[in-house]
């Protein structure tokens, strides 16, 4: 008898798990509330460290594809006080080892999506609840499952099935800003920010 592994959430975690299972001959179904892979902008960049994020990609057999889209030169780091005082500056040479290269979230997600068999991801399935036999979705549909994995992000709908713990806002917010074609449109700003995190 084959077991139906159901993963809620086609983010990086859910897709990486589905891919690693696939490499080991176990196919999973991933339910994602977004209607398609392009339905929402995926945000900016991630740095993937060699022992953690990159390790997951090695286990997934995707490290060469990752290197093809990763930006080695994106490893620069500058830390500043709010008044602009420079606290730390690490400029990495162009041939630096791939310790924590930057990658566009959308590129990484596409890489994982393209590595899975067709129809692994069921788009437009917003999970609402589960009982012992069935998963329930916001559109009124349901599906059978044997093993349920919650990979539906910080505000998970799966987590309350296991625990009363709830995420709490820390009181701190982060703002991410993107300037398209910055090297051409605002070269001074591009030079100030550098090639990594500022
Ligand atoms: C500002 C910021 C910067 C970061 N930088 C880095 C970095 O540089 N390097 C790094 O490794 N990590 C970084 N992280 C952390 C990283 O983004 C997360 O660890 C990662 O996205 C978690 O992946 P996930 O798949 O668990 O969840 P998510 O990426 O949140 O994906 C969850 C998925 O579940 C779907 N979903 C949600 N609810 C439901 C539902 N009810 N039914 C069906 N689908 C649902 C969502 O639509 C989404 O597709 C950063 C995080 C933030 C906020």
Q: What is the strand content?
A: 15-25%
- Overall structural domain count: 1
Task: Tell me the major beta sheet.
Answer: 4 strands, parallel
Strand order of the largest sheet: 7-2-1-11
Gyration radius, to the nearest Å? Answer: 20 Å
What low-confidence regions span 5 or more consecutive residues with pLDDT below 50?
none
- Ligands bound here? flavin-adenine dinucleotide
Structural class: alpha/beta
Round the mean pLDDT to the nearest integer and report it: 92
What CATH calls the topology is FAD/NAD(P)-binding domain
Distance between the termini: 52 Å
Order of helices and strands: EHEEHHEEEHEEEEEHH
**Secondary structure: helix percent:** 10-25%
CATH architecture: 3-Layer(bba) Sandwich
Number of helices: 6
Oligomer: single chain
CATH class: Alpha Beta
Please report the total strand number as a whole number: 11
CATH superfamily: FAD/NAD(P)-binding domain
Name the shape in a single word: globular
Could you give a quick summary of the protein structure above?
The protein contains 6 helices and 11 strands. By secondary structure, the protein is an alpha/beta fold. It binds flavin-adenine dinucleotide (FAD).
Notable features of this structure?
20% strand, alpha/beta, binds flavin-adenine dinucleotide, 3-stranded antiparallel sheet, 4-stranded parallel sheet, globular, 198 residues, FAD/NAD(P)-binding domain
């Amino acid at each position: 008898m084959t077991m139906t592994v159901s993963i809620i959430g086609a983010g990086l975690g859910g897709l990486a798990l589905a891919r690693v299972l696939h490499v080991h001959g176990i196919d999973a179904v991933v339910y994602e509330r977004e209607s398609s892979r392009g339905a929402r902008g995926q945000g900016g960049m991630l740095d993937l460290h060699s022992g953690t994020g990159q390790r997951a990609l090695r286990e997934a057999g995707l490290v060469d594809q990752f290197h093809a889209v990763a930006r080695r030169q994106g490893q620069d780091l500058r830390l500043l006080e709010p008044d602009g005082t420079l606290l730390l500056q690490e400029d990495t040479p162009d041939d630096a080892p791939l310790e924590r290269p930057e990658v566009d979230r959308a590129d990484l997600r596409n890489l994982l999506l393209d590595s899975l068999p067709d129809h692994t991801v069921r788009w437009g399935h917003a999970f609402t609840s589960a009982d012992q036999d069935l998963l329930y979705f916001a559109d009124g549909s349901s599906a059978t499952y044997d093993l349920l994995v919650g990979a539906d992000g910080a505000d998970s709908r799966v987590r309350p099935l296991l625990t009363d713990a709830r995420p709490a806002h820390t009181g701190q917010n982060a703002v991410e800003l993107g300037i398209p074609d910055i090297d051409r449109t605002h070269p001074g700003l591009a030079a100030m920010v550098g090639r990594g995190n500022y």
